[in-house]
Amino acid sequence: MDLLRERAEDKLNDATLQLGKVRQTYEKARAELTQLQCYQQEYQQELVARKQGKGLAVTHLLSYQFFINSLNQVVEQCSVRVASCEDSVTQALSDWKNDSRRLNAFTTLKCRADDIAKLNESRQEQKLMDEFASQIFLRKKSA
């Protein structure tokens, strides 16, 4: 029973480390996405401001539009990566919860087994004490 509990504890520790890693990866991807979305918004606002201001030459307009389209594609790819990382966090959390439940089950079983062993030991001691007292009583009676 101890071996099973130890293995469950090791597995929970591994799951905890994995959960930490995937959460860290998710947070990093989420930060990158937020930063890209800020850049995207800034460039779009700058394009609108320049068009409303002095205007833009066609080459500059096309260049801005091309850059913004490329940025949109990168934002979309990063969004897909964030969603994938979020799925990994969800899976790792589920694994961690399962491993935690398993460890708790083994711990409970071990505690119950220990309690039963203590109760049996206590009963055995009581039985020996009763037999000893009975023998002393019989000796005194016969003496």
User: How far is the first residue's CA from the last residue's CA?
Assistant: 51 Å
The radius of gyration computed from the alpha-carbon positions, rounded to a whole number of angstroms, is 35 Å
Largest sheet: none
Mean pLDDT across all residues, rounded? 93
Strand content: under 5%
What is the oligomer described by this structure? Answer: single chain
Helix content class: over 70%
Counting DSSP E segments of at least 2 residues, the number of strands comes to: 0
The topology string of helices and strands comes to HH
Low-confidence stretches: none
The structural class is mainly alpha
Describe this structure as you would to a colleague.
The chain is mostly helical. The chain contains 2 helices and no strands. Helix 1 packs antiparallel against helix 2 (58-142).
